[in-house]
Amino acid sequence: MKVLANDGISKTGELALTEAGFEVLPNRVAQNHVINFINENNVDILLVRSTTKVRQDIIDACPSLKIIGRGGIGMDNIDVDYAKSKGIKVINTPTASSKSVAELVFGHFFALARFLHESNRLMPLEGETHFEAMKKSFSKAYELSGKTLGVIGFGSIGQEVVKMGIALGMKIKVLTKNPKTRVLTLDFFDGQSLNFEITSTNDMDAFLKDTDFISINTPKTNEYIIDTPQFEKMKDGVYIVNTARGGVINEVTLIDFIESEKVAGAALDVFESEPTPELPLLMNPALSLSPHVGGNTVDAQEKIGAELAEQIIKLQKETIR
């Protein structure tokens, strides 16, 4: 069987597939050429991440496809139900990149709380001439320890964010559509572990009240989770990080509340107009920005490749039986 990993796959995953008898094609095909390539090469398995879109046109035009795999959690770039209705198996790796995304959340939180995003931009330009002025302007920083962390979404990424917040000594709030309870285990280097029972709320007002740091970790939504009414109920000086999807937070309104100083700082790894973020976002000094790299670590890619390969090999064995 031929595999096109169009957005890449780790060496670990590629080796596992090759050893199991699959042919992994080395090509990376532009979106408008995917259909022709699949048909010309009789591709059986298409693996993607967030770049390649697998819509009905590809599914209808490529009868050789048997499996579509998404390296990551969200599958909004794949018409999942339609693919399944055509007898195509659809798989993903829902937990492989969770720790990497959660670490990026805190990377941004630390950058915002200590002005690292801004000082890194200004030091090369003004460090020699305005050192003392910058030292003074960046002195009103905050520790995360003891602050209240609010996490929107309680899936695998949200749970990892909560665990890291607990490890830092933060107070925890979680917001979900329906209240739920999860027992989270923190594992330590010496083999010890601690369990924490966390119950979420569906009360947005209670969630926003007195929350110092907010992390959005939800699937793609059809409407904003955070817009003017939510911003107005936030604590003055709140910090917000969105590593979920563009469109869960109103970016225009976000800028307004940054300018009014209701929001002390925000970080975006995803954007409404991705891959061409709006210039006012890119130029705003109160924003810490990254180009949708939440799950893009060597560690996560190794896990993703290995998990995809494991699932594909398992599906092949089940088919043979």
From TrEMBL:
Keywords (A to Z) from UniProt: NAD, Oxidoreductase
UniProt GO MF annotations: NAD binding; oxidoreductase activity, acting on the CH-OH group of donors, NAD or NADP as acceptor
SUPFAM superfamilies the record matches: Formate/glycerate dehydrogenase catalytic domain-like, NAD(P)-binding Rossmann-fold domains
Residue span, D-isomer specific 2-hydroxyacid dehydrogenase catalytic domain: 41-316
Domain (D-isomer specific 2-hydroxyacid dehydrogenase NAD-binding) ranges: 107-294
Short name of any one Pfam family annotated for the protein: 2-Hacid_dh
Superkingdom assignment: Bacteria
InterPro entries per UniProt: D-iso_2-hydroxyacid_DH_PdxB, D-isomer_2_OHA_DH_cat_dom, D-isomer_DH_CS, D-isomer_DH_NAD-bd, NAD(P)-bd_dom_sf
Family: Belongs to the D-isomer specific 2-hydroxyacid dehydrogenase family.
Protein name stated in the entry: D-3-phosphoglycerate dehydrogenase
Organism of origin: Chryseobacterium shigense
